[in-house]
Amino acid sequence: MDEQARKTALRMIPYGLYVLTAGTKETAIASATINWVTQTSFAPPLLALGIKTDSALYTAVRKSGDLVLNILGQGQGGLAFAFFKPAEYADGKLGGQDVHWAKNGAPVLTSVPAAVELKVRHVVELGDHHTFIAEVTNVHLNQQISGRPDEAVLHMKDLGEKVFYGG
């Protein structure tokens, strides 16, 4: 297979950007910007998320099974970049961002348009990112969404011509 053609073809799949959080005030909190997310079922509502196996986030999600998918909105590219590296929880903030706490105990970024609480139901252990199948247990709309909800989200392409993931 032509490696450049593979990368080009796989990078044609559109990706939204999210900050995934896990852990609680009483345990270690981990977070990371992720982009491999899709809904896989209506009833029950399930999402599939790709999480890098050598990350602190992976360890925290495996341990707790509870997480929050913080959906980044248009204009929040700086927030995506901020969580590309490990973020510290200090003085009531995660990576310098205000949070409130989900029912499952994980942090919700207050600045994002929406967040989804999740409970891990299954893990597919293949490749350098494992696929977590997680059930939606609660949602947070932190701001009014007008127009098409899918147009309110930050996409990988919004970060610039040279920012890619995948392929």
Automatic annotation (TrEMBL):
Gene3D superfamilies: Electron Transport, Fmn-binding Protein, Chain A
SMART domains: Flavin_Reduct (SM00903)
Domain (Flavin reductase like): residue spans on this chain: 10-162
Annotated Pfam families: Flavin_Reduct (PF01613)
GO MF, one annotated term: FMN binding
Alphabetically ordered keywords of this record: Oxidoreductase
Protein family membership: Belongs to the non-flavoprotein flavin reductase family.
Name of this chain's protein: Flavin reductase family protein
Organism: Komagataeibacter melaceti
